Amino acid sequence: MTEPSRTGASDAGPHRPSRSGVDPKWWTLTAVSLGTFMLLIDLTIVNVALPDIQASLGASLPDIQWVVDAYALTLAALLLTAGSLADLYGRRRLYVVGLGVFTGASALCGIAQSPLMLELSRGLQGIGGAIMFSVSLALLANAFRGAERGLAFGVWGALAGLAAAVGPIIGGVLVSGLSWRWIFFVNVPIGVIALALTMLRVVESRDEQATRPDWPGFVLLSGALASLIYALIESGRSSFTAAPVIACFATAAVLLIAFLLVETRSRHPMFDLRLFRVPTFVGGDIAAFGLSFSIFSMLLYVVLYLQNVLEYSALQTGLRLLVLSVGVLVASGVAGRLSAKVPVRALIGPGLVLVGVGLLLMRDLTATSSWTHLIPGLIVAGVGVGFVNPPLASTAVGVVEPRRSGMASGINLTFRQVGLATGVALLGTLFANRLASVVQSRAAGTPLAPHSAEISTALRNGNVSRLFAAVPPQERGLLIEIARGSFAAPWTRSCGSRRSSPSPPGSRPSS
Length: 511
Fold this sequence. Notes:
By secondary structure, the protein is mainly alpha-helical. It has 18 helices and no strands. The N terminus and C terminus are likely disordered.
């Protein structure tokens, strides 16, 4: 992949005021911020709506994992190639394409009639999102210089925090007041506005020396990621030692090795391994992966816990997640102002530590825990995320020469999405495997003991209501206790804590 150049006949060069009297770079910041806001608000809204999607479409736990991972996987696989296409054909042009694809795919998600249709539409969303993500930071890097670049990234990070803050609330209102389908329909007007603004106001830029995309690298990376994620999710249905799972892990390893070899020998790689000679760049990519793998993948299961165990509605769940979102929003603004004054490691390092501490504070959940048990961890983790995000974005392009900004931002965002996809898949597998043993333990010595395997399968597949209708009335209360307690128990391990002694399920916790 050829990186965005700083100069060239088609680059913006010195920014001249547009007919509106506003410098084009500010229109660029507005358009990029709108697109980023739409992408991130979509992510938080989807998390809140997953239990309703599961019930409406009859989706299993693996289906729900794929609703998240289909988006993350296609986004991660296409990021670098999309950046190369933007260098070649124009960043504004590709940004317009990405906006159009994402907006159209959102409409398809809203009319989905089956889990498969929703998963495929989410994959299409990922394609549009990949184009937008890969071009967004490069557009900002090309439009802004010096101290103004830090300001631009600070605004970008603050709006990202705002999206995280209002997303759960908007999602809860839409799901509770209308339907889960409206969490996707809401993207359409935002996408149309961003599309019009980009076409009318954003200055085109490209690399006049750009070469064709690295298609062999794209195919190998896509295959490796797809095989890895499929193996992780499928292992939750069977086991890590099942033949198809082992075969997929082996395929992923072979394709990844082949990808690295191809990138090493390619004249114009999409993934220039020489960038990994820059320690700060490597640290930023590791931080991006770790952040998504930990807190962002865990949010899916936080939502499932709040709604399936504590029995909160989508709106009530969104209001409770606001604790995390406000922390992100406030800390992002602070980090944006500090990023030009202190080394990025002074923000990223402590921020990651805070995320880890926040996860530890959320340990030892049971079926009788109040949601307030989560508050300290959500606040601390939110502040940590807010400290990490803005400097992480600027680090991706700030430590390499300007002509490599497109590739650098694409690699960093790829690490983010791979972290999210693998985190969701791995946590789901650990959750499913832990669930089976907990159900067996809780059902032991009860009339439902012979049906423990059936109960655990129903919990994984979201079919508890059918099982509830099938058992005798006198055993339904026992089934509810086993289901709630078993669903909560894996949280002790998922949050990275010691195992707590199981508590008998009781009434719904107070809010």
